[in-house]
Specification:
The protein has 251 residues and is of the alpha/beta class. The chain is 49% helix and 14% strand. The protein contains ten helices and seven strands. It has a five-stranded parallel β-sheet, sandwiched between helices. It has a two-stranded antiparallel ribbon with strand order 2-3.
Length: 251
């Protein structure tokens, strides 16, 4: 039930949903038509402003560190959420956060992690799909990572379950000490909190940075762009996730 409610709440507070709702109220609630029209217009300008969207993302993301500065870890845990079931299925299709698996391979090759734990089942609400960890393992196989150095957790549906199920695998493998947590920079706050809650000591290795160095140019400051909406969507989703996880006792 929590899984369904969290997904539903996320869609209800998305920028596009809020803008559409404001204009719908403008149409159907005649008494406050002017106020709702102004609200919808202001929200539209806000959510399409590249400078504000990037600044919000810059503040929210956990900033990366150099690989050379890292100590050696027994395990690097890669969280799912980056593959799709797109046809043809003779390969793994990876979307925007592919750095999660690519950087894990680099960390392994450079001797910073001894094993790679892939954590992720299916996060789809209404349809079945290939578990994330299985799809990601195909990539590691093609990268010729030894089978003995790959651990697979393919049942978790959210970050809370990532942490719980990863803890069980670490215990089964008699792996103790601090692990390296590899996920997107915007997702790291929630992921760290979940792993800390279940008692897994994890150092963050944020990847897939979405923010950029702010630019004081017209296209950033005043020209509306649809790409800015993505930044707001991500941060709102993570804030909703943090709130929902706090209420559920996951963090």
């Amino acid at each position: 039930m929590f899984f369904i409610l969290s997904k539903t709440l996320y869609f209800l507070v998305m920028p596009v949903t809020l803008v559409v709702l404001a204009f719908l109220l403008c149409i159907f609630w005649k008494r406050f038509r002017k106020q709702f029209f102004i609200l919808g217009f202001v929200l539209l300008l806000l959510f399409t402003n590249l400078f504000i969207g990037n600044l919000l993302m810059l503040v929210w993301e956990v900033q990366p560190q150099s690989i050379a500065s890292l100590p050696k870890y027994s395990v690097g845990i890669v969280l799912g959420g980056i593959t799709t079931d797109k046809e043809p299925r003779d390969r793994s299709h990876v979307v925007g956060d592919a750095d999660r698996i690519l950087h894990a391979i680099q960390l392994y090759r450079e001797g910073k992690i001894e094993k790679i734990l892939l954590s992720g089942g299916s996060g789809k609400l209404l349809t079945d799909s290939v578990p994330e960890a299985i799809s990601l393992k195909r990539i590691l196989d093609h990268a010729q990572i030894p089978e003995a150095d790959i651990l697979v957790e393919a049942t978790s549906r959210n970050t809370h379950e990532n942490a719980l199920n990863s803890k069980d695998i670490l215990a089964d493998q008699n792996i103790s000490g601090t692990v390296l947590l590899i996920t997107s920079a915007y997702h790291m706050r929630r992921a760290e909190a979940c792993f800390e809650k279940v008692g897994v000591a994890a150092d963050p290795f944020p990847v897939s940075m979405r923010s950029d160095t702010p630019k004081f140019t017209p296209d950033w400051l005043i020209i509306p762009t649809s790409s800015a909406i993505g930044s707001f969507e991500i941060v709102i989703r993570e804030c909703v996730g943090m709130l929902a996880y706090w209420v559920a006792g996951y963090i």
